[in-house]
Amino acid sequence: MLSLVVLISGGGSNLRALLEASQDAEFPARVVAIGADRDAVGLSLGEEYGIPTFTVAYPAYPDRETWGDALLEQIRAWGPDLVVLSGMMRLLPPRVVAALSPNLINTHPAYLPEFPGAHGVRDALAAGASETGASLIVVDNSVDGGPIIAQERVPIHVGDTESSLHDRIKPVERRLLIEAVLDIANGHVDLKELSRS
Ligand code: GRF
């Protein structure tokens, strides 16, 4: 059984998908803790599913490195096999990436390397693209530039807003995440190997 710590900043819809998948006894992964950098709405899923939560509030620390060290300490307390950044809207300091790599993955609402960064959905719209996508990557010290585990195209419709487009991307992100966790747990995806290539 693959143990997961999931880090969020927002509503946690990807997290909910993982928690729902884990209700199936056959699913080879379990969320052991949920962490956030703020009072994220998605933390309520912890109570709903009986999963412990922790918050390492970014403004409570003097700099990114100190915040990252505190976050790492919390994560390590759970000894997870894999850490999932599921809408955690902060760059992790290199020390944290080095400590967790390659067992650290991130979902992104664009077809990387197109539209990296915090506004992937908005940027795809602003560029006038006719399609964008969803990607799941191994986290490295770049901004959304790590090895791609899986990705899929999503069309952009005339009249789309950031929110209508994001709503079309999110179900794809969720499916990619569940499939990737399955593949990692079953050994069909080797994160170490992916990170070497
Ligand atoms: C996802 O689209 C994620 O890729 C992006 O923010 C969204 C998080 O949504 N960075 P949620 O918190 O899982 O609902």
From TrEMBL:
Family statement drawn from the similarity comment of this UniProt entry: Belongs to the GART family.
Annotated PANTHER family: PHOSPHORIBOSYLGLYCINAMIDE FORMYLTRANSFERASE
Protein name: Phosphoribosylglycinamide formyltransferase
Residue span, Formyl transferase N-terminal domain: 4-181
Record site: Raises pKa of active site His: D144
Secreted in keyword set: no
Binding site for (6R)-10-formyltetrahydrofolate: R64, M89, R90, L91, L92, N106
NCBIfam families from the UniProt entry: PurN
Encoding gene per record: purN
